[in-house]
Amino acid sequence: MSTKRTLFDKVWDSHVVQRIENGPDVLFIDRHMVHEVTSPVAFLGIKNRGIKVMHPEKTFATADHNTPTINQHLPVKDPLSAKQLQALEENARTHGISYWGLGHEKNGIVHVVGPEYGITLPGATIVCGDSHTSTHGAFGAIAFGIGTSEVEMVLATQCIMQIKPKSMRITIEGKLSKAVTPKDVALYIISQLTTSGATGYFVEYAGEVFRNMSMEGRMTVCNLSIEMGARGGMIAPDETTYNYVKGREFTPKGEDWEKILEYWKTLPTDEGAEFNKEVTFDASQIEPMITYGTNPGMGIGISNGIPKAEAVEGGIATYRKSLQYMDFNEGEEMMGKKVDFVFLGSCTNGRIEDFRAFTSLIKGRKKADNVTAWLVPGSHKVETAIREEGLLEILHEAGFELREPGCSACLAMNDDKVPAGKYAVSTSNRNFEGRQGPGARTLLASPLVAAAAAVTGKVTDPRELMEEIVAG
């Protein structure tokens, strides 16, 4: 038997408390992130059992899904949202858990603030009652979403029972073309593998493309792992990782830093280690992407036309139903289609790097009159950086306004809902029917594609606007 091990094997095996024969492993959890949506019933469960949270110091709570993104200093209007936010605050207080609610300087989207404050670390196991917990895998952590009953299990025992997934490695070598961002890389992978192509696997992303990505970019890619059916995604820690993590509030300091750094350097996959499945792509084949249907796998290069039903894997009837919902037709070009809303934000693209990209394209231009734009930072740290770097001035000059941190229009769980029948170019992670509001039509894209749509009022290839900048 080979002694060569993958990054995934090393982290998983080091956290196994007990192996159950012909069953799941009992896995110790280093970090448990909670928010207001999936936690109330879990906290009620441990209350009814008369027990407390086992490790409150390993549990971190923030409000994000139900939060408004304007006038956060005022009482929350929606009764259900207000109730969920109040429940999270009370539960955090009862159990001595760090709680970052509305108005707190550390408040923001759970998968944005975790890395910002050094809660997310290489080699850790991280869970949250949210499917996009896979974001944290960018640091070389095993991170995945869990259900309400599992949230209760972790609160009570700091452990979870899981069957060890199979392993997959996705390798992309080469250089990315102009205007191709990490979001485009992720959407390309999903378009090739489909939304079920990685079901049952934990994915490691490898190759030149991922080594050259910033931590923000890696988080975007790992965030979208779940959209191809994977249990999670991860990228081996390296100097980029260590430089990002060092010095943050919850990161080890002094001698503890030196010791843990030495351990982290042992985590990357051993040369010769075997995966259950290997997939490779060529970076030069990726262009700016956009979705045209009702799942993240229905994506194409922005210069391409909508595929014919016969060319798409799966049921033709289901495919055509998706196009009917979007009011699109087979063979149509995506370029030039009218856009009503643009959303920049979410745990996929709500970081400072995303706002830098967006402002780089809209600088010197004006927002299209037909477009409503929601620009929502993922945290107060991101909001502060936008102001300090002068990006806010560029946004204002172009006719845009900045909202306050939160999940916003990623999902129809707060006030930021796209009206029925309207088209939204969205930097979020899902384009399901009704995801951004009942009847809303979502086109997933990168911050650059979103910026191009915001200033032209239609689906536009950002490379065209970048050429204008060069020519000017």
Please provide a written account of the structure.
- It contains 17 helices and 18 strands.
- With 472 residues, the protein is α/β, with parallel strands linked by helices.
- The chain has 2 domains: 271 residues, Aconitase, domain 3; 183 residues, Aconitase, domain 3 (2-Layer Sandwich).
- The longest helix has 17 residues.
- The protein is globular.
- The termini are far apart.
- The model has no long low-confidence stretch (mean pLDDT 96).
Q: What descriptive keywords fit this protein?
A:
five-stranded parallel β-sheet, globular, Aconitase, domain 3, alpha/beta, 472 residues, 2 domains, 18 strands
Number of strands: 18
Count of folded domains = 2
Portion of residues in beta strands equals: 15-25%
Number of helices: 17
Task: Name the CATH class of the largest domain.
Answer: Alpha Beta
Strand order of the largest sheet: 5-4-3-6-7
> What Rg, in angstroms, do the CA atoms define?
22 Å
Q: What is the structural class?
A: alpha/beta
Q: What is the CATH-assigned architecture of the largest domain?
A: 2-Layer Sandwich
What global shape is seen?
A: globular
Distance between the termini: 62 Å
Mean pLDDT: 96
How much helix is in the residues? 25-40%
Low-confidence stretches: none
The major pleated sheet works out as:
5 strands, parallel
Determine the CATH superfamily of the largest domain.
Answer: Aconitase, domain 3
